[in-house]
From TrEMBL:
Aminoacyl-tRNA synthetase keyword on record: no
Gene3D superfamilies: P-loop containing nucleotide triphosphate hydrolases (3.40.50.300)
PANTHER family: ABC TRANSPORTER ATP-BINDING PROTEIN, TAURINE IMPORT ATP-BINDING PROTEIN-RELATED
Domain ABC transporter: 3-234
GO molecular function: ATP binding; ATP hydrolysis activity
Keywords: ATP-binding, Nucleotide-binding, Transport
Protein name: ABC transporter ATP-binding protein
InterPro entries: AAA+_ATPase (IPR003593), ABC_transporter-like_ATP-bd (IPR003439), ABC_transporter-like_CS (IPR017871), ABC_transporter_ATP-bind (IPR050166), P-loop_NTPase (IPR027417)
Domain of life, per lineage: Bacteria
Amino acid sequence: MKVQLKDIRQSYPTSDGRRSVLQDIQLSVREGEFVSLIGPSGCGKSTLFNILSGLETPDHGSVIKDDRVITGETGHVGYMMQQDCLFPWRTVLGNAVVAAEAAGKGRKEALERAKELLPIFGLEDFADEYPTRLSGGMRQRVALLRTVVSERDVWLLDEPMGALDAITREQMQDWLLAIWSRFRQTILFITHSIDEALYLSDRVILLTSRPASIQGEMTVDLPRPRSRSLVTQPQFLRLKEEIWSQLHHV
């Protein structure tokens, strides 16, 4: 397995004790797999990503990548948070190399890699623009480019399209699938949209309300490459109904 979470538990201090956020999370993800996580708002999905990325250390349990325990260690995965977190004083190209620089990679090498990738991300004409001049969809492309340039083989994408309008969101979904098909990284993806999870993923993980545990999972046995006509097909609608039903029993 590429990534494993074993017996993860997490809690935070409160005025009257501790509040449990994650309870006995067990998850294994294969190399090159696209896995989405769905659960109620505030159930702990982002906390789970913080633990996966090493930004937080769990109260109990371990994170394993490529058969090596990495619990509490940063620098092993690419992490794209809900907000694009672009630096307003840096250009598109400058923002693209931030993660690589933070990881200790040479700036020259990172810039060369970013320049090579700009056309793939549709940003070749915007290398010297600042974030304030970019649309929401373009800002998300820069954020993902930053993740790619960091050269991590596991990507954590935390609701990267949640703030986009419906049309831009669909365009970004298709674009993300094209990027994933090209690089074949292992992706864990948080979303509140059942349609989005099914359209993108190989597997969907369902989380309960806080303290979150894994309530179930569903294999998305739909053909690839995916196209928009898929969302009206009986098999897609059946899977959507199954997930909806399970979530309303969480």
